[in-house]
Amino acid sequence: xxxxxxxxxxxxxxxxxxxxxxxxxxxxxxxxxxxxxxxxxxxxxxxxxxxxxxxxxxxxxxxxxxxxxxxxxxxxxxxxxxxxxxxxxxxxxxxxxxxxxxxxxxxxxxxxxxxxxxxxxxxxxxxxxxxxxxxxxxxxxxxxxxxxxxxxxxxxxxxxxxxxxxxxxxxxxxxxxxxxxxxxxxxxxxxxxxxxxxxxxxxxxxxxxxxxxxxxxxxxxxxxxxxxxxxxxxxxxxxxxxxxxxxxxxxxxxxxxxxxxxxxxxxxxxxxxx
Amino acid sequence: xxxxxxxxxxxxxxxxxxxxxxxxxxxxxxxxxxxxxxxxxxxxxxxxxxxxxxxxxxxxxxxxxxxxxxxxxxxxxxxxxxxxxxxxxxxxxxxxxxxxxxxxxxxxxxxxxxxxxxxxxxxxxxxxxxxxxxxxxxxxxxxxxxxxxxxxxxxxxxxxxxxxxxxxxxxxxxxxxxxxxxxxxxxxxxxxxxxxxxxxxxxxxxxxxxxxxxxxxxxxxxxxxxxxxxxxxxxxxxxxxxxxxxxxxxxxxxxxxxxxxxxxxxxxxxxxxxxxxxxxxxxxxxxxxxxxxxxxxxxxxxxxxxxxxxxxxxxxxxxxxxxxxxxxxxxxxxxxxxxxxxxxxxxxxxxxxxxxxxxxxxxxxxxxxxxxxxxxxxxxxx
Lengths: 274, 382
Hints:
heterodimer, A: mainly alpha, B: alpha+beta, CATH 2.40.50.140, elongated
């Protein structure tokens, strides 16, 4: 006997679960359109807080810094992480391989406070002026291990004979990497980049540790604003962030769906071929 | 027509010509992976335009040998010389050989055309030349309709042909084929074998093929090297391998065979006499044996070279075994009889079904005589 798909139990679970996840967010989105300056009192519909966001240079500046940092850090992390993942998957077995492998994963489970603190100590030790660049470096450091993990796991199922085939056909090893290996693992590299970008976008702790005067990221800005009281402007900027993330998720899943459909079509073609 | 057939009849066997220069020389090549010896001191000569098979069970080192020819592995000791040039320090991308991979190894992000053009592009040929050569290769393997497709949109047989076209596009001196037909079903495999032979003949490229399928090796090869445990057991033409195997291992690996342990009784310049151990049946062979009387040897006889009959032959004193029909396998064009001898060993005899099955007279439990001509038996010393 199977529990019916829409049994009372299943329905409740879904409703409770989704309420937990989304009611706070819905509330935030709703209040971003609040006419009233008081966060908890509904004063009618308005988009004026979005307008006033555009006037708020502090928030705009922080947004610019955040995007710059995220773009640079995720790109650097992707390059370094791809190199690391590639090397790790290509080294044969050697003494201490498991240790090395584990060390790539370690930063994933390291408390952010510790990562931030250690980076701060290092920047101070080498007397690097703290600012946007140090945040970028810090984000690169922790994002690159995510990329390395994604790329490495893609490469374990990679058919190396296509690289050999390329070399056999006269392609140098370096060129083979760029014209064969990289295009084939590109989806993994791209999702590594996206992951790094998102991680950098919403990091507060590490950025707070490694920042210096003048370099405030959006999460830092929001956090400092909230300490003086939640304003509808904060709701508005948060709603925009949610919108960006939602669009990103939708695009990714549409692309994924399309690729699935294409694959199904390819299989049809292949099986109908003589 | 007459001329063509007379030319075909002229035996092409450069390996028997004293002055012929081998195209590929494998000189004392050994390959070790750690303490495991994959290839053990192999020396082979392969001539231009040959269709040369490396045949053996999986793990016999045949693929390792092929990969050393391609340059993906380096010999631990020994040398490989291709067309007079020592390949020891030449990386894969600079060797005059191309390889067709077992998995086909097509580039998934490129179309059929782009796959075939890839090797030519690495040589920086003019665009027009590349296009022309690609088109010729696509015609050769009959993939015109599929030129714009990606590998995932092709069936196994089509992928195989793309892989072949791609590896031939650069006009290599040697084409290496690693189990090229392994992934195809039986019927397609047989068709493709003949197609491969035609293409090889048309282009005149030296083919070196790795396979574990003895029928495939027999069909396509000019010569076969039978390998086992990293060593070469025998190198010969398909018919020589089949008719005159040099060891029990080769005899058993290629086709079916009855092997009887025997003691040599008499050695003469043109024949030898032996006694089968256990049943004391005398055997006479049509060739002399390079061994002394009293030594143990093995008599090998192919099932189809034996005759089974209900009536005793005129001379039962030599090359004759008697027994009981233990099992009959009806395979359509032939029947296989398992005859149980006095010592309970089984001899397999294959007989062509010239008559309808309804008229078959030999049946289970019949007492039968198995005979063969002296030329049918081969004496193996190893």
